[in-house]
Design goal:
mRNA binding, RRM domain-containing protein, RNA-binding, disordered N terminus, Hud_Sxl_RNA, 16 strands, about 20% strand, Alpha-Beta Plaits, 8 helices, alpha+beta, DNA-binding
DNA sequence: TAGAATT
């Protein structure tokens, strides 16, 4: 059991934990990413982190079922927790999805896509909140300080600003050690730093949100579809859907391969010659349910002719996407985005 | 003094 001390208590370093914490813990290497020898089941299960807040309950209203090759579940507890899981059938698809989508920029976020580790209590609640950092200390210094408590095989993503930050460990025990060893210490002189476990959802806001949403007390898993599902299926370098995947899933028949389903058709102008469908998924997906995207190409060169179409299920989401993306600067081009005027249609 | 990594 770890006692989490308040900032005030942090003024008394002796209360921070057991005395005699001198010996430097030996870093324990851990393997978070399945290597070649790992069971196949693990290599089909991905975790997606740093999802934009918009990819949550609000934007997946019209979930019409996941595709046959994968499904994305965004974890949600009243509000999006910003991460989710994807299960692929084929390990190769999972591998390609990592290659194509890890580091993808969605709105203000850069998502991280990696193999999920087998679920275990030992890897949960391993995120620390650090405050009282000297102004000059950045992410690098913080990582250096905390690295003695564990090798983090995942990329450490502490966010340091205004003297506070987060640091994530691979294992709970490593985080506990770090709290014991560093809370109330003065690693850089000055005032002592506060190191404690980061709030878990619901802890911060008291009961306000939860009392409005009684059903939100438990974790809910939301199927987010088709927007990021499609992205996860399409964006790994292949143009359009896999015909095999389409045939295998009746729900998707007529959705891909240039056959727009019902919805709102959006005209996108001023795309670069190199633009492909994945660009459109990336641009529009975060705004809601996208059922189809198409880049119009020159027959001879196969280059984009400068425009394309996106079909979105919900009017409000489509309108928001247009309002947000019209005039958006993509590379050195300014996009023109509007409802398609000549053949505007509705479900 | 706050973002969101284990279903």
């Amino acid at each position: 059991m770890v006692t989490i001390l308040s900032t005030v208590e942090a003024q008394a370093p002796s209360a921070a934990g057991p005395s005699g914490c001198g010996p430097v813990p030996v870093p324990v290497p851990v393997v978070a990413v399945p290597g070649p020898g790992v069971a196949a089941a693990l290599k089909t299960n991905l975790i997606v982190n740093y999802l934009p807040q918009s990819m949550s309950r609000r934007s997946c209203g019209a979930s019409s079922g996941a595709s046959g090759t994968s499904s994305l579940q965004v974890m949600d507890k009243g509000q999006s927790l910003g991460y989710g899981f994807v299960n692929y059938v084929e390990a190769g698809d999972a591998d390609r999805a990592i290659g194509a989508l890890n580091g993808l920029k969605l709105q203000t976020k850069t998502i991280k896509v990696s193999y999920a580790r087998p679920s275990s209590a030992s890897i949960r609640d391993a995120n620390l909140y650090v405050s009282g950092l000297p102004k000059a200390m950045g992410q690098k210094e913080m990582e250096q300080l905390f690295s003695q408590y564990g090798l983090r095989s995942s990329v450490p993503v502490p966010c340091v600003s205004r003297g506070v930050g987060f640091i994530r460990f691979d294992k709970r025990v490593e985080a506990e050690e770090a709290v014991r060893g560093l809370h109330g210490q003065k690693p850089w002189g000055g005032r002592p730093i506060t190191v404690k476990f980061a709030n878990t959802p619901g802890q911060k806001s008291g009961g306000a949100l939860l009392s409005l949403c009684p059903g939100a007390r438990r974790y809910g898993a939301l199927i987010l579809s088709p927007q990021l599902d499609n992205l996860l299926n399409v964006a790994y370098g292949v143009r359009g859907f896999s015909p095999l995947a389409i045939e295998a899933v009746p729900a998707l028949a007529g959705v891909g391969l240039g056959t727009p389903g019902p919805g709102w058709c959006i005209f996108v102008y001023n795309l670069a010659p190199e633009a492909d469908e994945s660009v459109l998924w990336q641009l529009f997906g975060p705004f809601g349910a996208v059922t189809n995207v198409k880049v119009i190409r020159d027959f001879a060169t196969n280059k984009c002719k400068g425009f394309g179409f996106v079909t979105m299920t919900n009017y409000e989401e489509a309108a928001m996407a247009i309002a947000s993306l019209n005039g958006y600067r993509l590379g050195d081009r300014v996009l023109q985005v509007s409802f398609k005027t000549t053949k505007q249609h509705k479900a």
